[in-house]
Design goal:
The chain is built from three helices and no strands. It is an all-alpha fold and 79 residues long. The longest helix has 27 residues.
Length: 79
């Protein structure tokens, strides 16, 4: 595990060193390409659709969180 952490730190530092030596024009081109990829992916994926079942699951999840916090509050007064 220590080796993997050292490896990740080394790779990150190496990427930082290489990125700092590139000209600004190369960085600008890379940003343009990445923005184009994001736009293409947005067109392919589309928006998620809400269904009635998902609304109920969100509501029950919120109610569960509220009930847990209320139970902790009541138990803190009783102890």
């Amino acid at each position: 595990m220590l080796f993997s952490v050292v490896y990740l730190v080394f790779v990150s530092l190496l990427k930082l060193l290489v990125a700092s030596r590139r000209p600004a024009r190369t960085k600008d081109i890379e940003l343009i390409v990445l923005r184009h990829r994001i736009e293409v992916l947005r067109r392919q994926v589309g928006r998620p659709r809400m269904r009635v079942g998902s609304i109920y699951s969100v509501g029950s999840g919120c109610a569960g969180v509220f009930m847990d916090s209320a139970a902790e509050l009541v138990s803190s007064f009783g102890a």
